[in-house]
Amino acid sequence: MRIYIREKHGRKFFIPVPLSIASLGCRIASYAIEKSGKHLSQEQRDIIDCIDFDELARSIKYLRGYRGLKLVEVTSADGDEVTITL
Fold first, then answer.
1. 56 phi/psi in degrees, rounded to 5
2. Residue 30: domain span
3. What is the tally of structural domains in the chain?
4. Cα–Cα distance between 55 and 16 in angstroms, integer?
């Protein structure tokens, strides 16, 4: 996975993230939220409960066959851009 960030002032960032690390990160996030969920506000819990991190980690395995697919392409009103590509 590749994360591209371009700021309005011309600064560019490129962050390569191996899919295995992304999958591991989802599993760690699931565990961390399970253990520290009591410290979250009700609004934060409602938002996080909508995300199934274990299912997300499993689905990353299937995304390997779609290299080059743009998952996110966002441009802010200030001109900053973020693109996440497999």
1. -65, -40
2. 2-85
3. 1
4. 22
